[in-house]
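A further point concerns the way the authors explain their paired sequence and structure data. An entry of this sort, consisting of the sequence and the corresponding backbone structure tokens, reads as follows:
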Amino acid sequence: MSDRGPGFYLSILVGGLIFGFGLGYSHMARPEVVLDFLQFDDLGLLFVMGGAAVVTGATFAVATRLTDRRAPLTGAAYVRRVKEFDRNVVVGGTIFGVGWGLSGICPGAAYASLGVGNWPILWALGGMFLGAYLQGWWRSWRSDAATPTTTAD
């Protein structure tokens, strides 16, 4: 793995700025626009996501060929990580979808939403952090419960 110098963090900052600006410019950082999409009243989000998918796919296809199958930022081997389609994916995706539908915003757009002055979105962000914390606690508790305890003789 390469050294994570200032260029690494600068590229992440620039990428985040571009991402946030794009969400704000496309109005996807506004919960009412996202809710209109989820209710099939405004399908503009499809074009935003489709455009992002095309740019990302092309970037990964070109960048990995230019860097000998190495990740552009870290230099680590670029391999496809396959995630099994199991119960956890279905349950987690369902919970995520319900939260997205109730709050009207996905996590990335929630941060960008702050930039367009949507201060009530802090409640949704707080809920996201609390939910992630609770899930981590629950997973840790389950793994501790599944591990048999041994006593020293």
